[in-house]
Every structure is written in structure tokens, then in C-alpha cells.
Amino acid sequence: MPLKPKRIHTPLRIAVLLLLLLPLKVFSANEKIAYLAHSKNFWQVWTMQADGTDPQQITHTPFDKSHISWYPDGTHLLVNGSQGQIRKVNVQTKQETILELPIKGTVDAVVSPDGLSIAFSLSVAGSIDNNHIWLVKEDGSGLKKLTAMKGLQHEPVWSRDGKAVYFLSGEGDQSHDVWRVERASKRIEKLTAGKLYHFDMAFANDNAMAFSNNQTGNYEIWIKQSDGSNRQLTQHESIDARPSWSPDGKAIVFESSRSGVMNIWMKPISNSEAVQLTHEKVGARFPVWSAGGPEE
């Protein structure tokens, strides 16, 4: 009787088997991540599936794009441009529509959870150190100044219910802390206090806040949990910043210089390792996870 060949468990085979046994996060087919990547000397908007596949360039107009946010339908993005315009971009048709607002010089514009209002930072004094947080409707109506504090107020982020706006405030090289302003009453509350920078806020459905902070001497991703405690999510000698939550609140996508230049990475909020999603040579930045949308 011929002998059966002996199965040899090489290190590579064992590693593959272990990977197959690891719990895998399953993403919805209509979950996308928008981000910025270089194309023909400009930062342009791209999208990819939540697992990093199917990268698609969305914008092509010849100027740098910045700060992006998803509309709730999952098919449009609000995009800030280096020339001062705000555009609504259809990710399916790639059509860019300029929003005609009654005021110029807006920065950090983000669309509200219901898709009807836009929060942004603006200085009417002509100095970037005196920016305030404003609201306006997409059609240009309802212009409203939310803050009038001393110093710079910037990086607005909507609460999930749209009733409040979180923002950063500080003066020059001083600490920039997290504040919250109620949309209706304009009541302002300071949420953090210290000598360190708190940047890049993002909120999960349970109001857990992810942010980047340099309290360890390097920018890492932290989570301020619903009980008020802070938990360090990443620990790496490179810069980790710009977190954005998955729709189910179980993972975070962020930008990191771990590959030598900024690229997009994803990490479950469990203790799993971070996974690199983009491999751009010039870099990829500012990932924003959609809340889902219509099936394509």
C-alpha cells in the first residue's frame, strides 16, 4: 500500500491558518470611506470600500481639496477647497456643485446629520486667530453666528442628533481644548482643560469621542468614553490622527505616517492590530467613514 505523503506545517502555512482563524470584521457593501490623495499635483477626493478595495477618484478640478464630510444619503460629500469655495459632490456622477453662500472665507465646513445645515469656522475681522463658529443653510439662508469667544474657534463637529456643535478653541500656540455649543440656546461648555492639544474629534453613536492628542509626546488616537474616562487606542512612534468611526462604532479609520508618509489605516477598537488601507506614495489623508447609503 503506498504511503500517504506527510503533511508538513511550514511557518508560512501555520501563519496562513492562524489568519483564517482570526475574527474578521464584515463591512457592508455600501459602506465607503472618503479621503484625500494626490493626483496631478493636487489633493483630490477619493473613495474606497471600507476594506480598502476599489479606490475611485471623485474630484478632478485643479485645486487642493480639504475638510470633507458625508451627507446622510451616502451619495454626496461636502468638500472644502483651497480657493475658498464649498462644493457638494455627487460620488456616483462626480458632479461638483458650488454652494453660493452669503459670506466668503469659510473653512472647516461640515454638513449636519440631517444634511440641511453647514457648520464652519470664519473670521470677519480678517485674522485667522479670531475665527468663530457659524451655521448656514445649504441654500445660503439662515446665517447664524454660534460663538463669540476670544481666540480661535475651529474644526466644528456635529453631535449625532444635530442639536450641538463641538469645536476646538485656543490662542496661538496655547492649548486647544474641546468645547460644545448648543445650537438653539448657544450655551457653551468647555469639555477639556489642559496644556496639550486635542485635535480631530469624531463621535460614535453612543457619544464616545475619538480624538488625537500629544500627551504622550506624540500624536496618538484616544477615545473619551461615555463614562468620562480616556483610553489610548493607538501606540506608535509615528503620527496617528484624524479618526473617523465606522457606522457600528466598532472600528476607527485614521491617517498615520507609519509607512513613511501619511496613509489611511483602520483599527478595531478592540486590541487588534491596525491594518493599512491605502498605499499612496505621496500620501493619503483625512479619512471619513460614511454612515452607509443606498445599495448600488
Question: Can you walk through the features of this model?
Answer:
By secondary structure, the chain is mainly beta. It contains one helix and 24 strands. The chain has one helix spanning 11-21; strands at residues 32-39, 42-49, 56-57, 65-70, 76-81, 86-90, 96-98, 107-111, 117-122, 132-137, 144-145, 152-158, 164-170, 177-182, 188-190, 198-203, 209-213, 220-224, 230-232, 240-245, 251-256, 263-268, 275-276, 284-289. The protein has a four-stranded antiparallel β-sheet, with no helix packed on it. Strands 4-5-6-7 form a four-stranded antiparallel β-sheet, with no helix packed on it. A hairpin with a 5-residue loop joins strand 20 (240-245) and strand 21. The longest helix has 11 residues, at 11-21. The chain is globular, with a radius of gyration of 21 Å. It comes from Thiogranum longum.
